Amino acid sequence: MIGGTISSGVAMQIFRHKTAKRSYLLKFWGIVILQIIILMAYLKYYN
Questions:
Q1: Under 8 Å CB-to-CB from 39, ≥6 apart: which residues?
Q2: Which of 29, 26, 37 shows the shortest CA–CA distance to 9?
Q3: Read out DSSP for 1-47?
Q4: Could you read off the pLDDT of 17-32 as tens digits, one per residue?
Q5: How many domains, in total, are found in the chain?
Q6: pTM, whole model, 2 decimals?
Q7: 45, HSE (Cβ side, Cα atoms, 13 Å)
Q8: Domain limits for position 25
């Protein structure tokens, strides 16, 4: 789970896979933002 989104984003750019599909990119960046929010909340409450 850790690093999966980062790895998929890098691979997407390297291989130019789904970089033009707007609906996919919106979902992808939505997941990225959600993961950042969850990580920030975790670090705030458990550190």
A1: none
A2: 29
A3: -TTHHHHHHHHHHHHT-SSS-HHHHHHHHHHHHHHHHHHHHHHHHH-
A4: 777 788 888 988 898 8
A5: 1
A6: 0.71
A7: 6
A8: 4-46
